[in-house]
Write a structure and sequence with these properties.
The chain has 311 residues and is α/β, with parallel strands linked by helices. 44% of the residues lie in helices and 19% in strands. Pfam families: GST_C_2, GST_N_3.
Amino acid sequence: MHELILHHYPNSPFAEKARLMLGFKQLSWRSVSIPPVMPKPDLTALTGGYRRTPVLQVGADIYCDTALIARRLEAEKATPPLYPEGLEFIVSGFAAWADRELFQHAVSLAFQDEALAQRFAGLPAEALQGFLADRAALFSGGTLSRLPLVQARQQWPTLMARLQEQLGREIGDFLFGEASLADFAVAHPLWFLCAVPATAGLVDAYPAVSAWLGRVRGFGHGSHDELPAPEAIEIARAATPAPLPEGEGLALEGFAPGQRVLVAATDYGVDPVHGELVHAGVEALILRREDPRAGVVHVHLPRLGYRIEAA
């Protein structure tokens, strides 16, 4: 049984989503610190080019995107569930909306000048310029464009009012009664805004939302310790990818197992992963690839929100 290894950095909103899910599941994990900006040679040795944060490693299996990481954690430990019975579609659909729409608004608000100045206080000006240049590259070539700040400010009260209304109608402490993936998907953009005074008021102005966020953060991050990146790569090299899911998988029109393909996100961070398609499931595509440092790995990428092409 391989350990769970999370490749992340402290200030990443999506990494906070993954850390909270690990805490919710009360799982133990190893923490590999990665740079917040490119290049990320240790990470891409495992992923084959995927650069977004975080990435979950389990031996020689590499899971990209928190939507897929959530499903891997659910397989690791079924209770408490991220997808409560009878709410699976509602929870996954709501989480997808939050990861895109709510996050897009939060990023626009968090990148206003005053907030950036507070976030990068004490660091050289070159650090801020490097970060902004990296994020411009991250959002280049995809379908998701930066939401204008004026529009984000105008629409934010509507989003928060809807969230507050939902919390007021549920019997229970969370969005749909019991905690689920939906809570963690909504929490991480708000956590990002709360990190600096310039934007914290955008959450604090809504008492029910602020109290709910405190409850979600109360799950903590689980038990973890640090792991150097070279050791994580060596763990992958020494391991064998887990057996492929049983059955023939779900047909993928125009593609067949064993074919060389590239898979890339369509919204942002569109750097492609090249490899041999070994499985196409309902939720995930699995590529086999070989790296000089990491050896043979299976890279798991979501089916939704990603494109696949012949290499």
